[in-house]
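Input sequence (573 aa), recorded before submission:
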Amino acid sequence: MNKIIKHTLTVLICSAIVLACKNEPEPSLDAQNKISPLRGNPFSVESMVRAKRVIENSAHYAAAGSPSLNPRVTHYYVVFSPANNEELDMIVQSGDVELFDRPLDVSFLGEGSAIFDYDLATLAEDSPGHQFTTVTKDFSFPPVPYQIIAEIYLPFEDPELFANQDRRGSIPTDGLPCDLYKMAQEWENQSLTDNGYADFVDVGECEPYLDGGSGGGGSTNPYPSNQWGRIRIFDNSPGVNRLIPIEGVRVTTTRFLSWKRSHTNAEGYYKVNSPHHEKESKYEIKWEDDDFRIIAHSGGQATLEGPDQKGPWNFDIANNTKAQWYGTAFSAAKQYYDGERYGLAKPQNGDLFRTTIKVRDNDCTSRYAPHADIPVVGALFFNDIKVCVADYKDNMSALYGTTVHELTHSAHFKERPGNFSEEIILRPAGRRVLESWAQGVEWWFTINKYRTLSNNMAWGTYGGYSSHFANFQYVTIDNSRRYSNGAVIRDDIYTSLVIDLIDDFNQRDAVGTDLSRPLDRVSGYTINQIESALYNNSGVALFSNWKHNLLNMFDNPTESFLHEYFNNWDQLD
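Predicted structure, token format:
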């Protein structure tokens, strides 16, 4: 029996060859983790050799040009047993791998059925759990406990047969060889039948590929038939209120022990290119990327379970659903890490550990809501963002902006870690620098996105769409807000400084003469200039440092009003 052993860090001394590490003594086993095999393994080299002898006499084999068939170990079906999220991230960062929290054969065949004999050791409750996947034979295993369940041969992923196929879904440049596809299909089906899985034999159609390209574009589906689809999300923000495409989402399909993935493009279309997946496959979306992942309220990886079906899966994420909240936070993070971030510094990346964004929809434990936070202890900054959507459910732009806000803190810490910690200590004057910068970047990302979506250049400005973001621009000098739970926070650390340096709106004169509003006769600075002044040399800890850097580094026709403008906030220190 295959036993998944709960290793310690002694896994580091395991042999470099791909063998299961062993530890003594073996831990007790949880009976609930035992799954008995149903039939034989149709993907073993031995099974594929037997099936080869049959199909070499077939018409499809002859039509394919009687190619040389070489059944051998091309992949390993493995299970990882990470003790914590750090080890989970080490697996993700190790190469081309997609992890699943259930055995792939059980997921496809149904509960209670399996190809393999599983006898899994019980992991700690706070561990991510066993992670199953199929990797290529040359996969470089990270120092995380793992077990090779089986050495297998996957004909549809044999580079000698399908040299232009890959897991990420690029389309072959020379078209799909249909005769070869039909021959490989017959080969796999023969092995399934030989091992008692005739009920799962599925004959898919082979259609020549058309020109298209995996990137796609335009407003129509750019992909030929096969495993294509579209993912959209309902955005209930003021001025939008409609379905919009969601970009960068990783869509995964699995069939037996084979998995494929693709990412949605700017129009929400994705294409999983594999002749294997012409057949019935299981769809899934994980709200994660190489640099970050969205954590559900329950504490686990946020996912969207798709159907088991043949052909394309199109899905529209409905309003006021968990998928809407996870997808919105994902969109903000994906843009900040990999999309249009307007030349600003990137948040801390996943070189070691990915940023986690925990999206909670109730039972928010912070002092107030709507809210978000990142724990900071001394000079240590943890990539652990918590966002509560309790009061955001009717305005996805606020959830989007709040996610950007917290990621801005991550970027700030990455660029100036020592200075960031100093600003935390210098409360509230130092916190005013941190929060004013994050507030400004939140505003900048959000108005640019939603002015496009609403087709209204007044979105997010005083008198325009979205009072939530208009209030950023029309802030009072000393403004405290009382939230629904009665908590009060000092809003004077969340100033409109960055916004005021950019816009030409003087809020003091907007409605008569309101002395509670900042006197703002400064305008025309760019978001990049403001960031450069913030990070210049060792960075800034106080507004006064920020002001002097702006004066010394850039020429601006309104710079003579900088002293006057900063005096609005100096009185609060």
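Checked by second reader. The first helix runs from residue 45 to 55.
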